[in-house]
Amino acid sequence: MKNFKIKKSSVRWVVALKEEAQVILDHFELKVVNEKTIYPIYKNKQETHWLIISGIGQSNAAASTAYLYLYSEASTYTSWINVGIAGSDKGNYGDLYLVDKISTYNRKKSTFPSTMPKTYLPKMHLFTSDIPISNYSTHELIDMEGSAFFDIASKLTSKELICLMKVISDDPYNDIKNITKKKISKLIKENLSKIIDVISYYERLSEEESQIAEKPKLFYKIKSTWHFSVTQSHRLETLLRRVESFCNKNDIEEKIKGCETSNSVINVLNSKIKNNLVNWSKF
Amino acid sequence: MIETIYVEDAIKNHPRTKFILKKFKKSRIIAINKYVEIFNKRNQNFRIQKANPNLILAHKKDSFVLPTPEGFGIGSSKNFYFSHMYNCIYDCRYCFLQGMYSSAYYVIFVNFEDFEIALKKTIENNLSSKLTFFSGYDCDSLAFENVTGFAKHILSFFKKHPQFEIEFRTKSIQKEPFLSTKPMRNVILAYSLMPELMSSSLDNKAPSISKRIRVISELASRGWKIGLRFDPLIHGKNWKKLYQELLDNIYNNISLDSLHSVSFGSLRFPKRMFKDIFKLYPNEPLFTGPLSHKNKMISYDIEIEEEMTSFCKNLSLKYVNEDQIFKCSI
Lengths: 283, 330
Description:
The complex is a heterodimer. Chain A is of the alpha/beta class. Chain A has helices at residues 18-27, 58-71, 146-156, 181-190, 192-213, 219-225, 230-244, 249-256, 262-274; strands at residues 11-15, 31-32, 41-43, 49-53, 79-87, 96-104, 123-128, 141-143, 162-170. Chain A has a nine-stranded mixed beta sheet, sandwiched between helices. In chain A, helix 2 (58-71) runs parallel beside helix 3 and helix 7 (230-244) packs parallel to helix 9 (262-274). Residues 1-5 of chain A have low confidence and may be disordered. In chain B, helix 9 runs parallel beside helix 11. In chain B, helix 1 links the parallel strand 1 and strand 2. The longest helix of chain B has 15 residues, at 239-253. Classes of the chains: A alpha/beta, B alpha/beta.
């Protein structure tokens, strides 16, 4: 029988700088993986949180997101998070903002991340630039990675499982040239509790999605007893999901134990469905 | 509460856009070029969106009035439908909208006037036919009326064209604009109904059956023509008893003179759509019932369908004439 390892929630972080990541690494107890990797990768003991340091710029953000996906074997119900600093003259220095629209120089069309619902956190549009910008007037938030991160992450998971958060680190009164490693760490640290709040929503979402996607309890056991073709496996999975909703595991096993072929297993499950009278007073 | 409203640039100054935005003063407004930038994109999760749907205000460019699929109708020789909105504020587990779009956000097309132009053209092209129009095939036609005002708008068109029928199909208990308008002979207010026990499990976020019946009764007593839509018929333990109670309750609580038509429809999903909906809600009780795969459709066995339809039809024949009863077979 296949050893099916269920990880409850699944979160992947893409962060440009070590200084931005340090507070997160500490809080979630992420340790560097014991292998040589193209980008530095960290994970927690349970392997539910993974973080990659992408470096600055869109190419790095895109490449590291794809790399982390492959390296950490992320699933379609993994939540993807990008946290970092950004410039702005529209918000308050040091405050955390969620991103709900992203644009770039190179592309006519904007993209639209969905944001965590019912949040007290303010939202802003993000402009991702390939070079540092100190003229803030035409944009709300300015960074150098967000757009590329979102483009790649939205190919790997549902858009509702992606989140971009930015802390304002420079504005007309706090020159971009004066940003130091220490200042960056301090800015993220001061917003850690807000970041954790947001993450708990994405952890829950990922967990719920993983539970829905989870194979029925008996699936692997039955597959190891009889031979199922690919089409039959899909059929078996669907039937088991339906039957398990009204019939317990032992009853199902009892019903199919005399079956000689996979076809007869499917026939038995089909007949359970066919004879099921849904008792609507139970729901 | 709608948290975010996406507004197409082209209609940001449209009076109807402003009218709708006034109702959502706390929502965040985001400008977009085209609604398809947000709606029905790949890798969207319908179920997650449905928990907190946002709203999109858009301009519809074409396909305003379309012929209904074969088997959908209430006696006219030609049937057409139009939808000023995509998606629904309710979350009914058998609804085809769950498998139709990957997005659960509501799209409202604010250019109502273009629907009128298309309706006029359709009428001109079919002058010799008896026509019925169905409002809200891709949404509930009245559930969002307090926001859109579409029914009120389109009623004035059909006031000028009394020879053509319009049906508003709904589960809502929205009484306006029908309380403040004189009843019109060519307007059918059609209510989707099923036994309360089933509805309370399947018609998520929709008004209870008893509330719907109260509204039907009130609007019928004011002279509006009523359609009863038992579509889909749902199978399960004691289904005969449950449907008998429902039908008796309705027929005894509304003026039978007000009844325009009664229709029965079977629970059916195209195979692909079922696959998508099942993936979204694999533990849904509805899917534990005796549904099977036949001719690219997932449905109850034909014997079940026929038994349910004839049972309900026979009960209804005590109250209505046979020519008022239709079977919806799509």
